């Protein structure tokens, strides 16, 4: 018996919709260089291999070049900026990738397809959201209208951490937020210690 997926693929209408290049090997590579992968690495590979970081940035630039070339609807200027940015990083790979983590991606606001304008498209691949048979859309916290295909924005956020449209550094904001949280916890702990000392004196 055919699986749901094959059944579905056969029934899907043939449209001229430009397809996104397959990003699965890129996603696997990103998992390897993500900061969270550090615990899984052996001691001698405590930081990702610079070659792996370069490869991830180059692979994503290649994928964006395909989108730029094959989709008439694509915003070529935006893509060109993203591609130049990725290639520059590939040339001088950082020791740690400065993007957001998977936890951040998981918490991004999902946008139901019914809530977007009928002709709205993904700023990265240029495909209209409604033409996607299985749309998965996310909104970035920087602006209400900054909505993307999850598949398109995920690698960019993991590698780069900024909004491609307004360049708000979401990764830095998230790092600052977490740091403040840590500082608050430390401050509270210090205050509690102090209170205990006073209790000890007068108790
Ligand atoms: Zn897209
Ligand atoms: Zn934005």
Low-confidence spans: 1-14
Mean pLDDT: 87
Count, helices: 7
Overall number of strands: 3
The 3D shape can be described as globular
Oligomer: single chain
Residues in helices, as a percent range:
40-55%
User: SSE order, as H and E?
Assistant: HHHHHEEEHH
Structural class label:
mainly alpha
First-last Cα distance: 76 Å
| Strand-residue proportion | under 5%
Query: What small molecules are bound in this structure?
Result: zinc ion
Q: What is the radius of gyration?
A: 22 Å
How many structurally independent domains? 2
Question: Sheet with the most strands?
Answer: 3 strands, antiparallel
Largest beta sheet: what is the strand line-up? Answer: 1-2-3
GO molecular function: ubiquitin protein ligase activity; zinc ion binding
Region (Disordered): 1-24, 174-203
GO biological process, one term: protein ubiquitination
Biased composition (Basic and acidic residues): 1-11, 174-191
């Amino acid at each position: 018996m055919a699986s749901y997926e094959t059944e579905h693929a056969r029934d899907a209408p043939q449209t001229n919709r430009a397809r996104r290049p397959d990003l699965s090997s890129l996603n696997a590579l990103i998992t390897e260089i993500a900061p969270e992968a550090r615990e899984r690495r052996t001691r001698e590979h405590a930081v990702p291999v610079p070659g792996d970081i370069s490869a991830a940035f180059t692979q994503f630039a290649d994928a964006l070049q395909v989108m730029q070339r094959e989709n008439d609807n694509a915003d070529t200027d935006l893509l060109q900026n993203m591609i130049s940015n990725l290639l520059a990083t590939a040339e001088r790979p950082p020791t740690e990738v400065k993007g957001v983590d998977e936890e951040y991606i998981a918490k991004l606001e999902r946008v139901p397809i019914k809530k977007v304008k009928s002709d709205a498209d993904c700023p990265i691949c240029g495909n209209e959201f409604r033409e996607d048979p299985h749309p998965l859309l996310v909104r970035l916290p920087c602006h209400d209208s900054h909505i993307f295909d999850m598949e398109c924005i995920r690698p960019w956020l993991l590698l780069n951490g900024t909004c491609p449209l307004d360049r708000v550094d979401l990764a830095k904001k998230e790092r600052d937020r977490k740091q403040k949280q840590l500082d608050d916890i430390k401050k509270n702990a210090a205050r509690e210690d102090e209170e205990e000392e006073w209790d000890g004196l007068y108790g």
